[in-house]
Each structure stands twice: as structure tokens, then as C-alpha cells.
Design brief:
It is globular, with a radius of gyration of 31 Å. It is an alpha/beta fold. It is built from 36 helices and 25 strands. The strands form five sheets. The protein has a seven-stranded parallel β-sheet with strand order 10-11-9-12-17-8-18. Strands 21-22-20-23-24-19-25 form a seven-stranded parallel β-sheet, with helices on both faces. Strands 3-2-1-4-5 form a five-stranded mixed β-sheet, sandwiched between helices. Keywords: ATP-binding, Exonuclease, Helicase, Hydrolase, Nuclease, Nucleotide-binding. 3'-5' exonuclease. It is an enzyme of class 3 (hydrolase).
Length: about 950
């Protein structure tokens, strides 16, 4: 096969735009790149400045270039007999067809392949498919991104990498892929078919070693039952008679060998000692450790030492999956090399993160796809991934937008688990993770799972007496969510439609069909039961739609959002002041409750009877799934009932929805106002030691706020609580400058007036130009971000600075952050989720703008309820709650700037309350000692330039 890899640069991305550069790389039959064709094209129209900014192609470059006729005359012979390949090929293909048409050639009728598809399928764990970033990942030369010849060559090299990857795949995986695309009349189906035939001729059916073959799948993993504890073969405990100091000496020696630049940090040594002391004395510990202290090793080393020496498991919990992944990929491999004896650390996540092989096999074999085009791609990705993954954890997969729905149908869950009677049990990813956690010394989980375990009566996590909580400033929040209830509109709809969507789709229709095939006498009876359940399920769905519309109406009536504003609406419901239409709503809920009760009774009885009579695996797996869905319905029914009763004084009830999606985005919440008593009962009274660490635990250098929120007062009074604030390893006076424009206009609420927005946009633009982009702007309200986005974009377009806005540009937080890092000059606008957990070290980030102090909206139901409670206790809610929460958030935001000892940067705070109010000092005192200056707006840009130049000169 000969491949022609095509790329065009154009004056825009509308069909009316013109080509300004063409690149074509030819891959010959022997898979070598035999030539790269390149040419500028004179478009006959001006090139827009943003295209020049993106591609570097100027009017000067194209003014003497050949016209389209001449370029097509040279390109057409090269395309003869070739398969056309491109990265996001539809774009280039459309321009090619239009160019052929304009210049009098016949349209291209050959086959077309897209490297995006290939990357998704053969590299399912790549975190991005953007050409420049993939080239970096594969070490492919790509000197001039967005220039056609460089893009075409990079795409050709990436395509060859994909072909190499196909070579490595087991025959069985290729057969599966070919079979999957078989029903599609597509060039991808043709390609897989050709590859399969070629491989079959070469290998004559030999499957390579290094894989496990089971039930027609090629897997990377073998039976998990063979995994043994790390030191099973050792007769004596390796730490017998070894003190922590001696152990650390051995580790440090190894670290120096492994990392020549390794240096001991005072803060990390303090942390090691404090954590060890807490373990040794059975105490709890609050320890604030800023960026750069190396806090992961600060708790992992004492945890490993303690668990191995005392033969006592240590549990470590993080808030974000990101941090869990960082421990898995960065810290644990390093520790495995420097700790002088074998130990085992297991990562154990919530069950829904693991693939259920039984469900996946069923879905693929039955081709049970709701949106075939997208789901076939996802299935293909996962077939290849099975030959690569050792964990079956969805975080390894880049599933794309719709992939999440697919995952939900194949994720592991306790209600539909066949346990030991499942043919996949010995290969099961969830049971593997559970077994690994059982034999591990240290188990790394997350806050969510800690609470799910409590609710499941401690059936999920292995028993533990020592707990380390990283990112501990989130503990209270997560506790509230888990110890309370929350239900989304779609949760109920998904459960209902997975049971029954129409007479052909859903688990009940599948069972109906299976019973029909069986034709036994009992089968007729059960088919009648199923037929009777359909109308009831439809009725529940209709009533749920009505109820959620009425609930949504309660929100929009009471919302301060402008009509048509897609913002997030929130409305609190008060037990003693029920809305006037509440009776109509409870009547609907009651009807749902009764109908569901009837469905559940019939369904559960039928499932039990079929179980007794049938022993066929196909039916058993279906019955288990139906049984699981019935359990889900029962839980949703009880959650809805608890919410609609509105009767618990210690619970906050509220509704949330989004203006765009209306009642389809509805969520109902019922959360305890105060979780400190429960945290005390579950953790501080029960566990020997709980170590809590985070970069932000203190307010004004005191732990008092956190102690009260988490229920640690008693531990503190009984001398069972230690606290420590670690010194920062960075020199903030040299590395960070905080500027406050003292004449900046002030604003109330979440929307800025015209003058405020105009002043803000001008100042942000001037600052961005002075720092050449590389700027992160943190907002407290999405509405204000939207007000700033367009005018700021307009101001910066001619400077070649891109503006990226959360919610304005598509993509997750990680994708937007990556785009920001990948572009030379850009400004990233973010709201709440960007205040923490975003890590942009080095040059990519030079300035951080904080538009307003991050107070939580005082009308958020939970904040409101907590404030009311404080008022009843004669305390000042603003000083006891709002200020401490905002200070912790502010410190998190500030922490985005300096991520290493080489980073330098500027923070601008556009909120004069920090200077003028009596509470402003708490914000400033809580920062780790940067240089602070206030001045007028006009003095700011000269000061920024001067400060940045000092750096370059020194």
C-alpha cells in the first residue's frame, strides 16, 4: 500500500476559505517516506492576522507563490493509487475536493484514513491527540507546528508508529477489531480486514507470548490469586532492631545514588519526624506543608517503615485521582528502588473505576451499542487496552466525550457482581485491586472511598488503624457529600432506560427474548410479569419528568440569574417553610414511590424464581444485572422519599440545575449541616493515629478553624493532637511579587458593571502584554469570566496572544491547561476548579491575576445553614466561616504561581478589600512571605516590566 499524508494551511476553517500552503508526505510500499512535497499557495485574498499568528505564514511568504492550478498539477500525480491519510483528515479532504473541483480535476475517490482514529485505538492511554503534543510524546521531529509540510511529515511519522504498534498486537486482538468494524462500510473496516489477512499469512495463527488468552480476548494480566505478600519469603522482619533514623540513612544513601541532584530539605525532614512521632505515640497530626516540601515522601516513608516494622497496614487517602496517579507513577516507583527491602503499596479506588470483564464481553459479543459509530470506536480502544492494562482502571483511558456513557455500562459494581461464579472472577480487575490492597503494606485510596467504606459497614477497604489524609482541606466537604444524599435527574433515567428503553432495548426486553427462546412453561409466566412491568416503568419515567420539571420551576422562580443565563442555579428548601406548591409535588412523589414499590416486588420475586430454575451463564449474568438495577431503583426511591419529606432540622436541602439544560440537569441534595461529630466518631475516636496534611490548613498561622470544622477539639484538649507548620523551601521574597492596584473600582455581586469590566479588561490586557501572555486569571464567578472573555480576546488578538476560557472553549480542565502550556503566548481564564490542583511549573506561567477574593456565595445553602447555626451560637459567621474558607481558597490560588525553586512570577489582586477592610490582613498574613506592593493602576505595568527585567539581568 502507498499512503499519501496530506496537510493544508488555510485562511480559516470555513469552506469559503483559501489554501495558503500545501504539504504532502508519501509513504511507499516498504513503509519509508520517499518524498515530502511542500509549496506555498497564493490565495488571492489577504491572510487574517490570527492565521499569521498561528502558522507564522505572512503576506510576504505567499505573494510570489504559485497559484492553486500550478500546485494541484504537481500534487495530483502523487495522489495516484494512494490511500489518503491526515490528522483530522475530514478538514484537509474537504479542501482537497474543492481544490480539485476548482482546477478541473476529477474528485479524489480513493480510501481515506484518519490518524486521530489510529491514535485513539492503538494508544488508548494517550492523554491528548493534538499533533504537536503527540509528536513530543513519540519523540517525532515536528519543528514548525501549523506549517503544512512539517505537519504532514509529523503526521506520516506518527502514522508509521501506529503501523508498528499494530505489528506488536496479538492476532486475536486484530481479529476482534476486524470483527468489530465488520458491519461498517468504512475505510477503517477495510483497513483492519487487510491487516488481519496480512498478519494471518505471516503468523499462521501464532499468538505472541507475554499475553494471557482467555474467552477470545488477549489480556495483559494473569490470575490475581497468584499475587503474594511482598516479604513472604523472608523469615525475619527486615526492620527488626532497625530504628527509623537508621532506615532513613539507608534510604537517603540510595536517593543520592539514584538522584545526583538530591538534597535534604529541612521541611521534609521535619515532616518525616512529625509523622513518625504521631505513629509512635498514637496521636493525630495536622501538618501544613506548602509546595516544594516533598510531602508525599514525607508521609510515605514513615508509613512504609511503620507498616513493615509493626506489621500494621497504613491507609493513605487523597482527594483527587490526579494525586493518586502521581503517587503511582512518580513516587512509588522511586521508593521501590530506594527502600532497602521489598514492600507493597496498592492503589485502591472506587469500584466504578474498574472494568467489569463480564459486562464488556457481553456488550461486545451482543453488539449492544446505543450510538454505534462512537461506541464501536470506544469498544475498539478498549479491546486494544485490554492487551496493555494491568489495572483495568478507567483513568488510564482517554475516552473522549461520549466514552463516559459507554464506560458506565461496563464498569464494575457490587450489585451486578457474580463473585466467584463469574467466569472472569480470576481475571477480575476489581477483585485484583481488592486482593492487592489486602496483602499490601500501604494502601492508597481516596476520600470518597473512605466514606463509601463507612457506609458499607467497612466491607470495602482492608482494616486499618493508621490513616494519612492528604489534601485534607477537602475532608469536610467530601464527608458532607457522602454522609448526605444527592440524586441527579439522569441517575434515575439511566436506571429506568437500562431496564427498559423500548421493546427491543434494555435488560428486561433481553430477558424477555431469552425466555421466549427457552419456551418452557415457567418462561411464559415470567414473560407476562415482564410485560406487566413495562407500562409501570413508563409511568414512573413520565412522573419523574413531571416532578423534576416542577422542582426546576421552584429554582428558576427564585433564582437571581437573568433569563436565558446558562449559569448554575441553586435554591434551598426549608423544612419549616415548604414552597406553596409542595403538596402537588409530594403527591407525584408518592405515586412514583408506590409504582416503584410494585415494580420492585414483581421484579425481585421473578429474579429469585428464575435464579432457582436456571443455571445457564447467559441468563445468570443478565439476571444479576437486572437485580443490580432493581437495587439501584430501590435506593433512588428511598433517596427521593427522604428528600421530599423535608423533615430533618440538621440537614440542608437544596436543588441545583443549569439554565441551559433545565430540568435535565436537576440535582437534589440533602447534606448534614455539620459533619464534625461524625468525623470524630468514625476517625478520631476509632483510629490510633490520623495524619492530616495539605498546603492550606491554617488561617492567620493558626489551625483553630480546621480543628473546629473537623471535630478535633476533644483530641486537642486531651493532648492527642499534634500540629506543625513547615517552613517553605522557596524564597518567596525573591520569587514572587504581589501587586494590588489601590484605585481599582469595587463591585458587588457576581456581575461587574460596565466601568468595572472595562477597567479590568484593559488592565489584564496591559499585564498580559507585559508578561507576553503566560497568565492565569482566576475568577470567583463564571458570569464575570464570560463578561471579560470577548473584549479581552479582541484586545489581545493583534498582539498574537490567545485567550482560553473555561466553559467558553471546549475541553476539560486538563485539556485547557495543556493547551495553555502548549502555546507560547496565551491567557487562561478559569473559575472554581482552577484555584487548585492545576500544576503549571516553569516558563508557561509568569503571572496570576486574582479578580476577587474567593468568598463563597453567602447564599449557597450549605454556607447559609452553617451561618445560621453560628448566629444561634452567638458567633460571627463572617469571621468564623466566610473569611477562613476564603483565606484557604486564596492560599490555594496563590500556590499556582510558584511550583519550583526556579519559578518567578507576579500576582495581581484586583480587589481593594484586601487593603481597606479589617479582614484583609488575614489574607495577606496567610501568604508565605512574598514581596507585596500597592500602587495605582498606571504604575503597575512599568513595575511589572522592571521586576521581570531584574530577573533576566540577574
Amino acid at each position: 500500500m502507498k499512503y499519501a499524508v496530506l496537510d493544508f494551511e488555510t485562511t480559516g476553517n470555513q469552506s469559503s476559505d483559501e489554501i495558503i500552503q500545501a504539504g504532502l508526505a508519501i509513504i511507499d510500499h516498504d513503509l519509508t517516506i520517499s518524498q515530502v512535497y511542500r509549496s506555498y499557495v497564493n490565495p488571492g485574498i489577504p491572510i487574517p492576522p490570527f492565521i499569521t499568528g498561528l502558522t507564522g505564514i505572512t503576506e510576504e511568504d505567499v505573494k510570489d507563490a504559485p497559484g492553486l492550478d500550478e500546485v494541484m498539477m504537481e500534487m495530483v500525480p502523487l495522489l495516484d493509487d494512494a490511500v489518503l491519510v491526515g490528522h483530522n483528515v475530514a478538514f484537509d479532504f474537504n479542501y482537497l475536493q474543492s481544490a480539485l473541483d476548482k482546477t478541473g480535476y476529477l474528485p479524489f475517490s480513493g480510501r481515506i484514513l484518519d490518524t486521530m482514529d489510529f491514535l485513539k485505538i492503538f494508544f488508548p492511554s494517550l492523554s491528548t491527540y493534538q499533533l504537536g503534543l503527540v509528536s513530543q510524546e513519540f519523540n517525532v521531529q515536528h519543528d514548525r507546528p501549523h506549517q503544512a509540510d512539517s505537519d504532514a511529515l509529523a503526521t506520516a511519522l506518527i502514522f508509521l508508529k501506529c503501523l508498528e504498534e499494530i505489528e506488536q498486537l496479538p492476532l486475536l486482538t486484530l481479529q476482534r477489531l476486524s470483527d468489530l468494524f465488520n458491519n461498517e462500510d468504512s475505510d477503517l473496516a477495510w483497513f483492519f480486514d487487510a491487516m488481519l489477512q496480512e498478519k494471518q499469512q505471516k503468523e499462521l495463527g501464532v499468538n505472541p507470548d507475554g499475553f494471557t488468552y482467555y474467552r477470545q480476548f488477549a489480556l495483559q494480566v494473569d490470575d490475581w490469586m497468584d499475587i503474594e505478600p511482598a516479604r513472604d519469603h523472608m523469615l525475619v522482619n527486615p526492620l527488626k532492631d532497625v530504628s527509623f533514623e537508621q532506615f532513613m540513612e539507608q534510604v537517603r544513601e540510595q536517593l543520592r545514588v539514584k538522584l545526583p541532584e538530591y538534597e535534604e530539605r529541612e521541611a521534609q525532614t521535619m515532616m518525616l519526624d512529625k509523622v513518625m512521632q504521631a505513629f509512635a505515640e498514637d496521636k493525630h497530626l495536622l501538618i501544613e506543608a506548602g509546595t516544594g516540601t516533598g510531602k508525599s515522601l514525607g508521609y510515605l516513608l514513615p508509613a512504609i517503615y511503620h507498616s513493615v516494622k509493626q506489621d500494621e497496614k497504613v491507609m493513605i487517602s487523597t482527594h483527587t485521582i490526579n494525586l493518586q496517579e502521581q503517587l503511582r507513577e512518580r513516587d512509588l516507583p522511586l521508593l521501590t528502588e530506594v527502600v532497602p527491602f521489598p514492600f507493597q503499596a496498592a492503589i485502591f479506588k472506587g469500584r466504578q473505576h474498574y472494568l467489569c470483564l463480564r459486562k464488556f464481553e457481553h456488550k461486545i459479543n451482543k453488539r449492544d451499542f446505543t450510538t454505534p459509530k462512537e461506541e464501536v470506536m470506544t469498544a475498539a480502544q478498549m479491546i486494544v487496552w485490554l492487551a496493555q492494562t494491568e489495572t483495568g482502571d478507567d483513568e488510564e483511558l482517554n475516552l473522549g466525550n461520549r466514552g463516559g456513557d459507554f464506560w458506565e455500562t461496563v464498569a464494575s459494581d457490587s450489585d451486578s457482581c457474580l463473585g466467584r461464579s463469574c467466569p472472569w472472577f480470576r481475571k477480575c480487575f476489581y477483585h485484583r485491586a481488592k486482593h492487592e490492597a489486602g496483602v499490601a503494606d500501604v494502601v492508597i485510596t481516596n476520600h470518597s472511598k473512605l466514606f463509601t467504606d463507612i457506609q458499607a459497614g467497612h466491607q470495602l477497604l482492608p482494616a486499618y488503624d493508621r490513616l494519612v489524609i492528604d489534601e485534607a482541606h477537602h475532608l469536610e466537604d467530601v464527608a458532607g457529600k457522602h454522609l448526605g444524599l444527592q440524586l441527579k435527574y439522569f441517575t434515575v433515567v439511566h436506571t429506568l432506560t437500562r431496564l427498559f428503553k423500548d421493546s427491543k432495548t434494555g435488560q428486561l426486553p433481553s430477558l424477555h427474548f431469552m425466555l421466549q427462546q427457552a419456551g418452557a412453561e415457567a418462561a411464559m409466566k415470567w414473560m407476562t410479569v415482564i410485560d406487566e412491568m413495562y407500562p409501570s416503568l413508563i409511568e414512573v419515567k413520565e412522573n419523574w419528568d413531571k416532578l423534576s420539571e416542577l422542582l426546576f420551576a421552584l429554582i428558576s422562580e427564585r433564582s437571581d440569574a437573568a433569563p436565558g443565563d446558562p449559569g448554575q442555579f441553586v435554591t434551598r428548601l426549608l423544612p419549616d417553610k415548604k414552597p406553596k406548591a409542595w403538596d402537588a409535588l409530594t403527591t407525584l412523589e408518592n405515586s412514583i414511590y408506590i409504582t416503584l414499590g410494585d415494580i420492585l416486588r414483581k421484579g425481585e420475586r421473578m429474579v429469585a424464581e428464575i435464579r432457582e430454575e436456571q443455571d445457564d451463564y447467559g441468563a445468570e449474568s443478565l439476571i444479576t444485572d437486572i437485580s443490580g438495577l432493581l437495587k439501584d431503583l430501590a435506593n433512588e426511591r428511598e433517596t427521593l422519599r427522604f428528600f421530599m419529606k423535608l423533615e430533618d432540622e440538621n440537614t440542608v436541602y437544596w436543588l441545583e440545575a443549569n439554565g441551559n439544560y433545565r430540568n435535565r440537569s436537576l440535582q437534589i441534595f440533602a447534606v448534614p449541616i455539620d459533619v464534625s461529630a461524625q468525623l470524630k466518631a468514625y476517625f478520631f475516636d476509632k483510629k490510633k493515629s490520623v495524619v492530616m496534611t495539605s498546603a492550606t490548613l491554617t488561617v492567620d498561622k493558626s489551625f483553630q478553624y480546621v480543628i473546629e470544622q473537623l471535630g478535633l477539639q476533644e483530641a486537642a484538649s486531651e493532648d492527642l493532637l499534634m500540629t506543625a507548620m513547615l517552613p517553605s523551601p522557596f524564597n518567596y521574597r525573591e520569587q514572587a511579587l504581589v501587586l494590588i492596584p489601590r484605585d481599582f473600582p469595587s463591585v458587588k455581586g457576581s456581575v461587574g458593571d460596565d466601568y468595572f469590566i472595562e477597567t479590568l479588561v484593559k488592565s489584564l490586557a496591559d499585564t498580559a502584554i507585559a508578561t507576553k501572555g503566560r497568565m492565569l486569571v482566576l475568577f470567583t464567578s463564571y458570569r464575570m469570566l464570560r463578561q471579560v472573555y470577548d473584549p479581552l480576546k479582541e484586545r489581545l488578538v493583534d498582539e498574537g496572544i490567545t485567550v482560553i476560557g473555561q466553559g467558553m472553549d471546549s475541553g476539560s480542565r486538563t485539556k485547557l491547561t495543556r493547551r495553555f502550556q502548549g502555546q507560547q503566548a496565551s491567557v487562561l481564564l478559569g473559575t472554581s476548579s482552577f484555584w487548585e490542583g492545576v500544576d503549571i511549573p516553569g516558563e508557561a506561567l509568569t503571572s496570576l491575576a486574582i479578580v476577587r477574593l474567593p468568598f463563597q456565595p453567602p447564599n449557597h445553602p450549605l454556607v447559609e445553614a452553617k451561618s445560621e447555626r453560628l448566629q444561634r451560637e452567638k458567633k460571627n459567621p463572617f469571621m468564623k466561616l466566610s473569611v477562613p474558607q476564603a483565606v484557604i481558597r486564596f492560599k490555594q490560588g496563590f500556590g499556582r504561581l510558584v511550583r519550583s525553586s526556579a519559578d518567578r512570577g507576579i500576582v495581581v489582586v484586583y480587589d481593594t478589600r484586601i487593603l481597606e477592610s479589617y479582614y484583609g490582613k488575614y489574607f495577606l498574613y496567610s501568604l508565605p512571605g512574598p514581596k507585596m506592593e500597592h500602587m495605582t493602576l498606571t504604575q503597575m505595568v512599568p513595575r511589572i516590566s522592571e521586576w521581570l527585567n531584574d530577573d533576566e539581568e540577574s
